[in-house]
């Protein structure tokens, strides 16, 4: 049965670090199969919002429901937290691969430890996802032998090995040399075309325009403008978005 409830619902979320209020009652929703790009100036709270979605940060106020799991409560039991972490994958700017493990071992670690799956089953799956990101020939390589673009593709494959229903990307191409950005975006675009629910914090305006169904412009801890990529990127309503976009080009 198709589930029509949004993948992520957030209403009036507030988050402070000490006296610094980073999320100021931010609201929105992400639908299943939707790709949402989040844009906005450095420091406006993009990473913090994304980190709330998989409980790397806890919210101070408001309502947050991710894949049916209510994260508004201050305490979650271990079972719910494990379920959330398995269902929501996250890819960071820094790839965070384990340097002492081969590519294949990096991919197999979490399914074995967290999902308790067995050897042949997870290796088959790991190879399947390596194939998907075009790196099956690197199965035995170690992270230091890979380019930045290849490392990020491995990090994406590693997330996919948990069979997530939602993928969060926090500036996945910002640490890469310009010539390596494209190969990562291609993998993300393919994932989007397969119907993955994706929330992507990015400065790649072309990716936002071509791949995202909707774009959120964040400003000072709120979603200041949202709409189709076309509307947000080509018909900004506010001066702040207009200024932001002009700096991007
Ligand atoms: P963005 O990703 O949009 O650049 P962030 O969400 O990383 O913004 O940060 C928003 C604000 O919150 C910044 O001023 C940042 O310094 C602050 N901040 C983020 N994480 C923490 C933390 N763990 N402790 C204190 N301040 C933080
Ligand atoms: Mg950030």
From TrEMBL:
InterPro entries assigned to the protein according to its UniProt record, in alphabetical order: AAA+_ATPase, ABC_ATPase_HisP-typ, ABC_transporter-like_ATP-bd, ABC_transporter-like_CS, MetN_ABC_transporter-like, P-loop_NTPase
CDD domains recorded: ABC_HisP_GlnQ
TM helices/strands, residue ranges: none
Domain ABC transporter: 8-245
One GO MF term: ATP binding
Keywords: ATP-binding, Nucleotide-binding, Phosphonate transport, Transport
Record Pfam families: ABC_tran
Family stated for the protein in its record: Belongs to the ABC transporter superfamily.
Listed name of the protein: Amino acid ABC transporter ATP-binding protein
UniProt source species: Funiculus sociatus GB2-A5
């Amino acid at each position: 049965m198709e589930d029509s409830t949004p993948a992520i619902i957030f209403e009036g979320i507030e988050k402070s670090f000490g006296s610094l209020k980073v999320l100021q009652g931010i609201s929105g929703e992400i639908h299943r199969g939707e790709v949402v790009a989040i844009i906005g100036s450095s420091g406006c709270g993009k990473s913090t919002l994304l980190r709330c979605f998989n409980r790397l940060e806890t919210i101070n106020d408001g309502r947050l429901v991710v894949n049916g799991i209510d994260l508004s409560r201050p305490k979650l039991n271990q079972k719910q937290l494990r379920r959330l972490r398995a269902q929501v994958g996250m890819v960071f700017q820094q790839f965070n691969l384990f340097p002492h493990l081969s590519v294949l071992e990096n991919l197999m670690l979490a399914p074995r430890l967290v999902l308790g799956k067995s050897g042949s089953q997870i290796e088959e799956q790991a190879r399947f996802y390596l194939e998907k990101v075009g790196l099956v020939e690197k199965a035995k390589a170690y992270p230091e032998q890979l380019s930045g673009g290849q490392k990020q593709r491995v990090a994406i494959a590693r997330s996919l090995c948990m069979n997530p229903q939602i993928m969060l990307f926090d500036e996945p191409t910002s640490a890469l040399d310009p010539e390596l950005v494209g190969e990562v975006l291609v993998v993300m675009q393919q994932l989007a075309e397969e119907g993955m629910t994706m929330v992507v914090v990015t400065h790649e305006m072309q990716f936002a325009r071509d791949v995202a169904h909707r774009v959120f412009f964040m400003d000072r801890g709120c979603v200041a403008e949202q709409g189709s990529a076309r509307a947000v990127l080509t018909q900004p309503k506010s001066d702040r978005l207009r200024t932001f976009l002009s700096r991007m080009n």
